[in-house]
Amino acid sequence: MSRILVVDDEPAIGWSLREMLTDDGHVVDVAATIDDALVASAQAAPEVILLDVRLPGRDGIAAIPDLRAAAPAAAVIVMTAFGDLDTAIRAVEAGAFDHLVKPFDLDHVVDVVSRALADRTLGSAGLRASGDDTDDVGGPAALIGSSAAMQEVFKRIALVAGTDMPVLLTGPAGTGKKLSARAIHDHGSHRDGPFLVTNLAALAPTACGRELFGHAADGPGLFELAADGTILLADVDAAPPDVQATLMQVLESREVVRTGTATPRPVTARVIAATSAEPGSLPSGFRPDLATRLGAFTIVLPPLAARRDDIEPLAHAFLARHPTGGRSSAPAMTAEFLAALAARDWPDNVRGLRHAVEYAAVVARGGSLRPEHLPQQVASVVVRAAAGPGLASAETAVGAAMKDWAAAARAAYAMCAAPDLHHRALQLVEATLFREALAHTGGNRTAAAKLLGLDRATLRSKLRSLGIDD
Known about the structure:
The chain is α/β, with parallel strands linked by helices. Helix content is 48%, strand content 12%. The protein folds into 4 domains: 3-125, Response regulator (Rossmann fold, 3-Layer(aba) Sandwich); 161-300, Rossmann fold, CATH 3.40.50; 304-387, Helicase, Ruva Protein, domain 3 (Orthogonal Bundle); 420-470, Orthogonal Bundle (Arc Repressor Mutant, subunit A).
């Protein structure tokens, strides 16, 4: 039995959390203000504190040091209705164990509290980023999203930003890998240094090494030019074999030697790599040791189709940034326009959405944006993507594989009183599907359940029955 303190000024939230956590066997205290929380912590030190951000008189995150002084062993879990990257960064810098975005799934709260209780050392020590709290990524190029999938991205950016670990960003084209790299840079200890980007797929194989590592005749390469800053290696899977070998040496030794010289020079830049390949699916010619080194901390950027709740706020943000031609404000988006955006599959992801909104703003000529203002070529791309050979060929392959499996299963279980091939096939298919969904969402069960069209409790029950531990 553990003691938990809920700090929230909304009585309904305090009541529901107390009822749920009490049913789970915990002793639960509820406070509506920071002052009340400090008194409650002094009277009976909690092991976990569920802390709202917006509280009367005082910001919850700013009060974490005082709460930690009153209850040094408590793991602090921040609750907020504003699930942006800045809040995630502030929570991590303040030493919070995790943060939850309202409205939250109660099962998810139980999971987070259980993890906090199981690992209170991490919760009390926290994971702190270096430097002051900044709002740099809240500008025009900010990552936007309140969906569960993007909350997981924000959490992982917040966790790794204050370290010097290499980071591997994966996800389809147009999902925001460069923005994510910039956010890691802006919130880390290298923020005052340069942020340099190079796309290895755009470089000739013979020029790639000179670009990165420098040359006796050409001078320093990007690793030297990015000193005390960050270098982003976009499309890192396109690196030629010799560049991969040198890159591995640079990461291990933290030194670079310009081609044609013998003098090692220190590397002080942080390295972030990006690829559109699926996690664990880099090309066969890519060095496994380099993949392991770069992928020590991986952040998976979800496709826009997996975060449809973010389409409307993204569209508003893109329209607000679009030049207004001297008008005092951006044009309005009609409900029909937003519905048309939500209905599309967006194979080009966030980049495609931005282009479509900007195109519509030009065609609307200052008037309200309507569905007919959307570019037709985007719709045709969606139709081709939906009806193209990718999904059709995959479905054909699944059908052929099931035929082979059915034949083998009939032979294997022919002597059983109840072969139950239907149940066995469902287990096989569901186990594969659930593992893929969890991998796609970075292990976020809430996002995986939404992708699968299941409620979270059903997914949890099925994972348990299949023996899947994500």
